[in-house]
Amino acid sequence: MAKFSVYAREVLVGHSLLEHGDPPMGVAFGVFMPADAYSQIQRECTTNHADQSALFLTVRVESGMAIPCVGCSVLDYSTEDESPYVEVNVLGIPYPLYGELFPDHVARYDKQFGETPPRRSVERGGA
């Protein structure tokens, strides 16, 4: 499974395997593993789950390319739970790129529902 890097502006703040997903929605998410610089944005990620656009979050593949998407967020619940849990979400990843980056998510979806999810294009606003 690939390891993805999470950036706030141009600063590496953590990583994730993005081990979960919702292929029809173009969503990938997973456990967030913070880097040292995460401390610079942690307060915002703990207190603001609604709009983190001011953080300029991007998620990048190993080659350094940012995954095109509608938005990214880091949801930090570590102060609310006994076990610290921090999650990164990447929303609105267009097809066919989603299927290329997350073939396991698509295969699980196909197995569960017996069909291929509709291919949506962010640029066209729908199917």
Keywords:
four-stranded antiparallel sheet, 3 helices, single chain, alpha+beta, 127 residues
How does this structure look, described?
- By secondary structure, the chain is of the alpha+beta class.
- It has one domain (4-113).
- It contains three helices and eight strands, in the order βββββαβββαα.
- A four-stranded antiparallel sheet has the order 5-2-1-6, with no helix packed on it. Strands 3-4-8-7 form a four-stranded antiparallel sheet.
- β3 (20-22) and β4 form a beta hairpin.
- It is globular and about 40 Å long.
Task: Walk me through the topology.
Blueprint: E1 4-8, E2 11-16, E3 20-22, E4 27-31, E5 33-34, H1 42-47, E6 57-60, E7 71-76, E8 86-91, H2 97-101, H3 103-113
Antiparallel strand pairs: 1-2, 1-6, 2-5, 3-4, 4-8, 7-8
* Annotation, overall tally of beta strands: 8
- What is the CA-atom radius of gyration, in angstroms? 15 Å
Q: Describe the biggest sheet?
A: 4 strands, antiparallel
Distance between the termini: 28 Å
> Mean pLDDT score, rounded?
89
Number of helices: 3
The dominant shape is globular
Helix and strand element order: EEEEEHEEEHH
In the predicted model, the low-confidence regions spanning at least 5 consecutive residues are none
What is the subunit organization of this protein? single chain
Any idea how many domains? 1
Portion of residues within helices: 10-25%
Class by alpha and beta content: alpha+beta
